[in-house]
Conjugative transposon protein TraN
Amino acid sequence: MKTIKIIWLFWALLFASTRLFAQEASITIKDDQAALPLQIAFTKTTNLIFPYAIKSVDKGSREVLVQKAPGVENVMQVKAGKENFQQTNLTVITADGQLYSFILNYVAQPSILTIRLEKNGSEKPLVQFSQENDNEAVMKESAFKISSKDPVMGHLRSKKFDVGLRLNGIYIKDDKFYFQLQLNNWSNIGYDVEQLRFFIRDLKRSRRTASQENEVIPDYVNGNSKVIYSRSGQVVVVAVPKFTIPDQKVLMIQLMEANGGRNLEIRINNRDLIMARRF
């Protein structure tokens, strides 16, 4: 009887390990112009591992959520922001100058959740961590100092169901923008952050045409951007590369609640951006 149990346990572990590795894949890219099909879900996150650091991201629909994995430079996390969204695309440019194009489709249960992308058999490490250099140290120190500054603006704010998002100030130093944000939760229910997004979109959106959104990827985030505890508030400083907003477009800061509906948005015009204070 003991032998039978051992054999059953062996096959159970073998089946489990087979299912685990079936959710990972490695793809070698030979044709730079070919768009890769990618299936994503609403309740699961798909991880894209690139051979070099991610420098630019552009998605074709607001119904898709993307972000760089915290603490690393070459891992992109993608999931659906809405079930059964219409087919759209995603473009990623990496530090080696390569462009990756994906066609995104919704599925409830993706067969693959982790994809490693390679260029003709690249032997790069699976994950590349951010390098701690002098510029990064200055950026982190600047963000820390800005977090303690008094608010210099307050007209850009959003509030819903006793949760608030306010832009306290915009600063610039060494070709970096620093956005000082105030996050408040006056309710008795904690707020788990699904995503804190920065993106540029059209000022006026038409229902007849697709709205293009260009993600602004943060270089560094100072403060707790993962949860706002009940009846509490906190300051978060987000550092991003210097940019300006094209005509007929606006910068959006979006705070999205995990498994909830208390989503907040702030719209920033070019006029607000160019008034950034030097630090």
Notes: The domain at 134-278 is CATH 2.60.40.1150 (Immunoglobulin-like).
